[in-house]
Automatic annotation (TrEMBL):
Membrane topology: Peripheral membrane protein
Protein name: Oligopeptide transport system permease protein OppB
Record key words, sorted: ATP-binding, Cell inner membrane, Cell membrane, Membrane, Nucleotide-binding, Translocase, Transport
Ranges for domain ABC transporter: 4-248
Length: 268
């Protein structure tokens, strides 16, 4: 059974249809990229999956996470799934972190909230472990820092620790490295790859080279619809849709090398 199944998803704001008839699945341990120009509906799709659509938006169709229907699920139930069964990493960690709370406590809190650690003390210890797993130097000390005392890359590591804390079945990354410099981007991508073996991963990005590095399958979104999908190596080497060809042409990804294999832009 797929971890995530989206079937015939529509999202509208009044008369405006933002997402139209979107369907896809992600299995356990599968990594799927979602690409498309700004405004094509990627973030709206991700918000619908997380049950985080703003009030003026309406969703119809079906989204199931491990068989549970997300569309129309009451907020109380959704909040039990978010942070435990599914979590999300955003582009700007500063807005997602609490500026007034030590980051170790923020990591511990998501475990205490979902009771995935027996008590607060174990949650604190597990938080320090997690901060080490996302390779924050001196995790004991880092746990006591406030978000403003950390660099952008370190804050994104904290976000990743929070997202991974309860070993979610589904991790959604929405442009998680766009705001970071290139070296830090590559480190964060490595961490995401190293820590999501069993999770289903939906990875939203403008950067086709990142998709080629991280994902096995890709969905191409244009004007609210998925216009093309398939294995990254097929879609990037032999795109069928005109829009995908344009995306590839305007990216700095050199799709194939002299042997016809997918080549990615190096990150250093
Ligand atoms: N709350 C809202 N009310 C009305 N329209 C919205 C709302 N949220 C998003 N939209 C519109 O929905 C469309 C899709 O937006 P979305 O943020 O999903 O695009 P995106 O592909 O994620 O773009 P980006 O890459 O810039 O994040 C856009 O036209 C946007 O203006």
């Amino acid at each position: 059974m797929s971890v995530l199944t989206v079937h015939g998803l529509n999202v509208s704001a009044g008369d405006a249809e933002l997402v139209r008839d979107v369907s896809f699945t992600i299995g356990k341990g599968e990594r799927v990229g979602l690409i498309g120009e700004s405004g094509s509906g990627k973030s709206v799709t991700a918000s619908a999956v997380m049950g985080l659509l703003s009030e003026e938006l309406t969703a119809s169709g079906s989204i199931t996470l491990n068989g549970k229907q997300i569309v129309g699920m009451p907020e109380r139930q959704l909040s039990r799934l978010r942070g435990r069964d599914m979590s999300m990493v955003f582009q700007e960690p500063m807005t997602a972190l609490n500026p007034a709370m030590q980051v170790g406590k923020q990591v511990a809190e998501v475990m205490s909230l979902h009771r995935t650690q027996p008590d607060r003390r174990s949650a604190r210890a597990a938080a320090v472990d997690l901060l080490g797993r996302v390779r924050l130097p001196d995790p004991q000390r880092a746990a006591k820092s406030y978000p403003h005392q950390l660099s952008g890359g370190q804050r994104q590591r904290v976000m990743l620790a929070i997202a991974l804390a309860n070993n979610p079945s589904l991790l959604i990354c929405d442009e998680p490295t766009t705001a970071l410099d290139v070296t830090v981007q590559a480190q964060i991508l490595d961490l995401i790859l190293a820590n999501t073996n069993d999770s289903a991963l939906l990875f939203i990005t403008h950067d086709l080279a990142v998709v080629a590095t991280v994902c096995e399958r890709v969905l191409v979104m244009y004007n609210g619809r998925i216009v093309e999908s398939g294995l990254v190596r097929d879609v990037f080497t032999a795109p069928e849709h005109r829009y995908t060809r344009q995306l590839l042409a305007s990216s700095d990804l050199e799709a194939t090398d002299e042997n016809g294999r997918l080549r990615t832009v190096s990150h250093d």
